[in-house]
Please model this.
Amino acid sequence: MSFTRWVERILGGLLVIVVVGAIGHGIWLALQDADPAPEPTVVSETPTPMTAPPPTAEPATATPEAPTPTNEPHPATAVLAQLPIKERDPLAGYSRSRFGDRWVDVDGNGCDQRNDVLGRDLTDVEYRPGTRDCVVVTGMLADPFTGNTIAFTRGDVTSAEVQIDHVVALADAWQKGAQELDFETRQEFANDPLNLLAVDGPTNFLKGHRDAASWLPPNEAFHCEYVATQVAVKAKYRLWVTQTEHKAMVEVLSSCGP
Model:
């Protein structure tokens, strides 16, 4: 998934502040001795043939300088700097039901969030007839976690090959501020398209509820977008990060372009 796509997904959530040398030169001058006295002019009886003057050289065109490279930080870096750093709360009291029903139709379009995300993230999508382009039955996923292409087919066995990941896991959120949110906000969090991503099922299972300090996708090309999305989600829902998580996020984002 490209950086542009990430920006489109977090519009309305955040404002970020996006934050070189002189080239020296030297001149060498040479002093010459005075010209000697001119020799007497000898007149030749044979006239010297006229020659055309040398063509006037065109003025050299200055070569434009290449743009000076910048080392601007990734936009998520400024947002990360605003997140509180605290120790995690105990996991006690956590259950999936604390975040409401699974795949609620939060946007009111008549389609649950799982199918909405499948329709958004898959290509060559085919829908079940009679569902008003809601229930996805087949499609192709360019999996961001592994970099592989996965053919999705709905079925009792095959559906699990593509899962919908909570980029910020629910249990992680519970330990970092979600306990203080009301039930409706937690349900919104669990179904927010910003926090949902279609991914390879087995890889998502391995992730579990770990944060960026203990797990990153195998596909290194996706690290920047993955961490930036986690930062955006935590900022939107006023969650915090631990010190080790903050450090891991900084390390990832420092290797990303603006």
The beta strands are 123-127, 136-142, 149-153, 162-166, 196-200. Helices lie at 3-9, 75-80, 113-121, 170-174, 183-190, 201-207, 223-236, 243-253. The two ends are 16 Å apart (CA to CA).
